[in-house]
Amino acid sequence: MRLPEWLKVKSPIGVHDTKQILRNHRLSTVCEEARCPNMGECFSKPTAAFMILGSACTRNCGFCSVESSAPKPLDEMEPERVALAAKDMGLKYVVVTSVTRDDLPDGGAVHFAETVRAVKKHLPKTTVEVLTPDFKGSYNSLKTVLDSAPDVYNHNVETVPRLYPYVRPQANYERSLNVLRNAKKIALDINAKSGLMVGLGETFNEVISVLKDLKDAGCDTVTIGQYLRPSKQNLPVKEYVRPEIFNEYKETAVKIGFKYVASSPLVRSSMNAEEMFNNSVSV
After folding, report:
1. How many H helices and E strands in the chain?
2. Average pLDDT for 181-195
3. Domains of the chain (ranges, CATH numbers)
4. Mean pLDDT lowest among 83-87, 117-121, 147-151, 159-163
């Protein structure tokens, strides 16, 4: 399908410096690996979502362009390099995400915690958001991450439950909701966040049902954006959802009780994360 006007992105300037810092510290970002359409805008600010635990994922979700293969051993110096790169970039808000590492006993939870602590050591006034996989539902792994005191906990449900076998065949909708519920049990005051994509064949009512489930699970912030096919190997777009529908999703989510809602075609989970956090804590 031809890309509609509301999804066409202009190329900003200033990307090179951010990429150079990332390469100097030998780091990956989900922005690059997932071919995010907002990468140019974010890198020009600068901001970036650091992707830890390597660049190879043990799962193979239909929407994602991150490489799915046997991962390499963990890099023990990666947490420190993330912190130093964030310092070089002058970041006041750091997003740390990862590939899924089902091969590791803790799913990479200790590595997440070490990264949060390293960032807070080098940048004590910086806000840290973690966007984690589901750790196969492990309460202990989740607690390990949250005990490192991130400011925002994010875990994306990505799509409606009916489409999980098609979009996230190795994941489980109820398990993801339980991850969010447990995050609130472990860290009652943490800002909990989740997000989903539309345009994969879901119905309007299915999205509203997911929003209600997320609110019941304790989510404070939610993001809704248009799925864009990153490569021909990924799932095709079923529909380009019009901006007015995103507005309806936002209005409904606000009525449901979310502290902050970002809903528009180019919204992504980590885009404008600092703005989302600042607006949600001021509510």
Report:
1. 11, 8
2. 96
3. 11-281 (3.20.20.70)
4. 83-87
